[in-house]
From TrEMBL:
<comment type="pathway">
    <text>Isoprenoid biosynthesis; isopentenyl diphosphate biosynthesis via DXP pathway; isopentenyl diphosphate from 1-deoxy-D-xylulose 5-phosphate: step 2/6.</text>
</comment>
<dbReference type="InterPro" id="IPR050088">
    <property type="entry name" value="IspD/TarI_cytidylyltransf_bact"/>
</dbReference>
<feature type="site" description="Positions MEP for the nucleophilic attack">
    <location>
        <position position="151"/>
    </location>
</feature>
<keyword id="KW-0808">Transferase</keyword>
<dbReference type="Pfam" id="PF01128">
    <property type="entry name" value="IspD"/>
</dbReference>
<feature type="site" description="Positions MEP for the nucleophilic attack">
    <location>
        <position position="207"/>
    </location>
</feature>
<dbReference type="InterPro" id="IPR029044">
    <property type="entry name" value="Nucleotide-diphossugar_trans"/>
</dbReference>
<keyword id="KW-0414">Isoprene biosynthesis</keyword>
<dbReference type="InterPro" id="IPR001228">
    <property type="entry name" value="IspD"/>
</dbReference>
<keyword id="KW-0548">Nucleotidyltransferase</keyword>
<dbReference type="GO" id="GO:0050518">
    <property type="term" value="F:2-C-methyl-D-erythritol 4-phosphate cytidylyltransferase activity"/>
</dbReference>
<dbReference type="InterPro" id="IPR034683">
    <property type="entry name" value="IspD/TarI"/>
</dbReference>
<protein>
    <recommendedName>
        <fullName>2-C-methyl-D-erythritol 4-phosphate cytidylyltransferase</fullName>
        <ecNumber>2.7.7.60</ecNumber>
    </recommendedName>
</protein>
<comment type="similarity">
    <text>Belongs to the IspD/TarI cytidylyltransferase family. IspD subfamily.</text>
</comment>
<feature type="site" description="Transition state stabilizer">
    <location>
        <position position="22"/>
    </location>
</feature>
<feature type="site" description="Transition state stabilizer">
    <location>
        <position position="15"/>
    </location>
</feature>
<comment type="function">
    <text>Catalyzes the formation of 4-diphosphocytidyl-2-C-methyl-D-erythritol from CTP and 2-C-methyl-D-erythritol 4-phosphate (MEP).</text>
</comment>
Length: 227
């Protein structure tokens, strides 16, 4: 089942505390963004990658595409101030019936998960990658516990998130009109009353956010080299 992928890569990586976009930092001998792009470069069902980037990263990225033979980037668009704007700009260039949105900062996504997401979105419109929450989650107000939420109903939501193109475009257009900011892509689709299917993914599909995550990333690469 064929699809296109939108990859927001126009963040500043503030929580990583590096002096530049965290996606350009190297792990396992390659910039993080290259690891992420390679997953889709290798997937025959991926027809094209639409990347949202900062103008200041463009030159470096283009030279990395050449160096690492990344050929599937069909459009690069200007990133916005928020991730939502970056994704919206990129979605406007999409043309395939099924489109995935995937963070540039999640290099460990498994092809099997991508395939399940694409199939599920094709069958029912929207599907997101997630894992069951391991911790106990409590609502805390002013330093004291308000209540404990039943854990079995809690899932940590990741990307990719896969959608029928018409559905996600409509959701993003409506959010812009209404001035709504969602914390993920699916939340904008939820606002339209659409059902979102959940596809169980892997705990190692982490988003590289802080310095500690680079240590976890090295460990995940090491584990994958062994197996
Ligand atoms: N992103 C984007 N445009 C923005 C903000 C974020 O394209 N205006 C992208 C990031 O490059 C990243 C993904 O969205 O691939 C997830 O965002 P996050 O992990 O928060 O990255 P940053 O925003 O770069 O990091 P921080 O929030 O720590 O500054
Ligand atoms: Mg951010």
């Amino acid at each position: 089942m064929e699809y296109e992928v939108v990859i927001p890569a126009a963040g500043q990586g503030k929580r990583m505390g590096a002096d530049r976009n965290k996606l350009l930092l190297e792990v396992e001998g390659k910039p993080i963004i290259i690891h992420t792009l390679e997953v889709f470069e290798k997937d025959v069902n991926c027809l094209g990658i639409i990347l949202a980037i900062h103008a200041s990263d463009r030159e470096e990225l283009v030279s990395l595409f050449n160096q690492f033979n990344i050929c599937k980037v069909i459009h690069t668009v200007e990133g916005g101030r928020e991730r939502q704007q970056s994704v919206h700009n990129a979605l406007k260039k999409a043309s395939c019936d099924i489109v995935l949105v995937h963070d540039g900062a999640r290099p460990f996504i498994q092809p099997s998960t991508i395939q399940k997401l694409v199939q599920t979105a094709n069958d029912s419109g929207a599907a997101i990658a997630a894992v069951p929450v391991k911790d106990t989650i409590k609502v805390v107000r002013k330093g004291t516990v308000d209540k404990t939420i039943e854990r079995s109903s809690l899932w940590s939501i990741q990307t990719p998130q896969a959608f029928r193109l018409s559905m996600i475009i409509k959701a993003y257009d409506e959010a812009e009109l209404d001035g709504v900011m969602g914390t993920d892509d699916a939340s904008l689709v939820e606002k339209m009353g659409e059902k979102i299917q959940v596809v169980e993914a892997d705990y190692d599909n982490i988003k590289l956010t802080t310095k500690e995550d680079l240590i976890f990333a090295e460990a995940i690469f090491k584990k994958r080299r062994r197996s």
